[in-house]
């Protein structure tokens, strides 16, 4: 029987599966789709340029071995890469196997210009009257990759962070944007990237800063007529890590200056890492030209950790603190605290404190008591499904009608209110909200939220709808 792309690739997968760890196979090989087989050339589709680079970096020998085994010594592998940049060349990028066409990254021989020009150039981190030669990185060495527990919820972001650390400015994920809800590890990961780069490339100038501090520095620079010095200083950084980039929202002056800094760094092969509580598509009041640049690299989401990851996080922290704790207690905490890592560690700290201060043993009863207080004090997130049911019942319609395409006024208002409260009361992205409420896109959800805000201000009856629904949903 003649070979097909599917049959050859399935045979390759069987061989690969026996030679790597199950989790690595699931992450890096299951998403691949065989496209075509022409002679000895097999074309496979990979989800992103990041995927292609990772395969070439870590699995080139394994791929060469299995392809040669299946197709002979003239075997070739062609990658059909789905480009993440929607406004780039419409043709898929293809790279022939076995040779890798990527140029090796030249280590930048950096000399910090501030050492030479320290009198002319003002460093916003220097207190007036005190001159420093070196720029403080502002990194916390306790936030590193060793104590960042990997799981399905963060594997892509962590892998991308490690890749960036190995070749800052030399991968296709520049900028690297890490986004996700509160307490999921965005700041930890940003610091870990910076710490790793400083270890591997001590000569590089690495700087971590929050977007709020960046904004404050810019305002100060404008007041002192030092805007150009401010820009020049940031253009000399090799690796710039900015936390909570969404706080640039509505600050047009700061966005403009960051645009110029970003362009210069990117064009000169310097690495930019950003964190945000939302994906670029969900950011409001950020200039389009900046949003388009955020999409140039890789946007990696951090999600809530699954049960196994939560257990691993707790076990790692317990081991680090030199504490012994029964497995049943660890699993009880992991089962009941699901929202984020910060709360998980908070419960553990409370439990250790209570046990040591009161000279008690770790018991399930004590654990239950602390967890119950934590859960009670944590604001419960209502689901999009519940919001749709409550809104539908309030307007005396059913959920399928709410999700339908009908343009009847009361149904449209109900649909818009469901989208509005989903955005307000859940951590779901606009795209996810739209998908669950009648398969709409994120722009429809954004429009619905703006419409509700406008009608709440101008329509007394509509304001009553909002207030009553808010009471019903927040008392769930």
Give the SSE map.
Elements: H1 5-17, H2 22-28, E1 33-38, E2 41-46, H3 49-58, H4 60-71, E3 76-81, H5 113-116, H6 155-166, E4 176-180, H7 186-200, E5 206-210, H8 211-223, H9 227-235, E6 239-243, H10 252-267, E7 271-276, H11 288-294, E8 298-302, H12 307-320, H13 327-336, H14 341-357, H15 364-377, H16 384-394, H17 399-403, H18 409-425, H19 430-436, H20 442-458, H21 460-474
Parallel strand pairs: 2-3, 4-7, 4-8, 5-6, 6-7
Antiparallel strand pairs: 1-2
**Class computed from helices, strands and strand pairing:** alpha/beta
Oligomer: single chain
Q: In the CATH hierarchy, what is the class of the largest domain?
A: Alpha Beta
Strand content: 5-15%
Number of strands: 8
Distance between the termini: 61 Å
- The helix/strand series, from N terminus to C terminus, equals HHEEHHEHHEHEHHEHEHEHHHHHHHHHH
Q: What radius of gyration results from the CA coordinates?
A: 26 Å
Largest sheet: 5 strands, parallel
Total number of distinct structural domains: 4
Q: Which ranges are low-confidence, i.e. pLDDT below 50, for 5 or more consecutive residues?
A: 83-121, 126-133
What share of residues is helical? 40-55%
State the helix count: 21
Under CATH, the topology of the largest domain is which? Rossmann fold
Describe this structure in words.
The chain has 476 residues and is of the alpha/beta class. Helix content is 51%, strand content 9%. It has helices at 5-17, 22-28, 49-58, 60-71, 113-116, 155-166, 186-200, 211-223, 227-235, 252-267, 288-294, 307-320, 327-336, 341-357, 364-377, 384-394, 399-403, 409-425, 430-436, 442-458, 460-474, and strands at residues 33-38, 41-46, 76-81, 176-180, 206-210, 239-243, 271-276, 298-302. Strands 5-6-7-4-8 form a 5-stranded parallel beta sheet, with helices on both faces. The protein has a 3-stranded mixed beta sheet with strand order 1-2-3. α14 (341-357) crosses α15 (364-377) and α18 (409-425) packs across α20 (442-458). The longest helix has 17 residues, at 341-357. It is globular.
């Amino acid at each position: 029987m003649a070979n097909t792309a599917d049959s050859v690739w399935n045979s390759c997968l069987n061989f690969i599966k026996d030679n790597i760890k199950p989790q690595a196979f699931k992450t890096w090989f299951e998403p691949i789709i065989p496209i075509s087989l022409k002679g000895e050339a097999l074309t496979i589709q990979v989800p992103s340029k990041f995927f292609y680079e990772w395969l070439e970096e870590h699995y080139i020998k394994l791929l060469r071995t299995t392809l040669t085994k299946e197709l002979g010594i003239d075997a070739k592998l062609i990658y059909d890469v789905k480009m993440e940049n929607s406004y780039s060349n419409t043709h898929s990028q293809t790279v022939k196997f076995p040779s890798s066409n990527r140029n090796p990254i030249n280590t930048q021989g950096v000399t910090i210009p501030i050492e030479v020009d320290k009198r002319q150039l003002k460093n916003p981190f220097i207190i007036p009257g005190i001159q420093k030669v070196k720029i403080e990185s502002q990194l916390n060495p306790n936030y590193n990759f060793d104590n960042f527990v990997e799981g399905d919820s963060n594997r892509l972001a962590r892998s991308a962070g490690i890749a960036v650390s190995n070749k800052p400015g030399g991968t296709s994920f520049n900028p690297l944007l890490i986004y996700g809800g509160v307490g999921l590890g965005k700041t930890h990961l940003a610091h870990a990237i910076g710490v790793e780069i400083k270890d591997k490339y001590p000569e590089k100038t690495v700087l971590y800063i929050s977007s709020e501090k960046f904004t404050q520095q810019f305002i100060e620079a404008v007041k002192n007529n030092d805007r150009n010095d401010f820009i020049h200083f940031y253009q000399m950084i090799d690796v710039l890590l900015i936390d909570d980039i969404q706080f640039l929202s509505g600050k047009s002056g700061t966005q403009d200056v960051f645009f110029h800094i970003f362009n210069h760094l990117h064009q000169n092969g310097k690495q930019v890492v950003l964190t945000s509580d939302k994906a670029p598509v969900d950011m409001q009041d950020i200039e389009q030209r900046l949003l388009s640049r955020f999409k140039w690299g890789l946007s990696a989401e951090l999600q809530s950790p699954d049960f196994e990851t939560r257990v691993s996080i707790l076990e790692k922290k317990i081991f680090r603190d030199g504490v012994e704790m029964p497995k049943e207690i660890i699993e009880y905490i992991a089962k009941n605290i699901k929202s984020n890592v910060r709360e998980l560690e908070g419960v553990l700290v409370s439990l250790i404190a209570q046990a040591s201060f009161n000279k008690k043993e770790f018991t399930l009863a004590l654990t239950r008591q602390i967890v119950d207080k934590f859960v009670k004090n944590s604001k419960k997130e209502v689901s999009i499904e519940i919001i749709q049911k409550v809104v539908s019942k309030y307007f005396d319609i059913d959920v399928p009608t709410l999700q339908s395409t009908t343009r009847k006024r009361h149904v449209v208002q109900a649909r818009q209110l469901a989208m509005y409260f989903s955005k307000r009361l859940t951590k779901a992205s606009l795209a996810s909200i739209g998908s669950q409420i009648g398969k709409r896109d994120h722009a429809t959800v954004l429009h619905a939220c703006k419409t509700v805000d406008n009608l709440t201000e101008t329509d007394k009856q509509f304001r009553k709808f909002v207030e009553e629904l808010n009471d019903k949903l927040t008392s769930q």
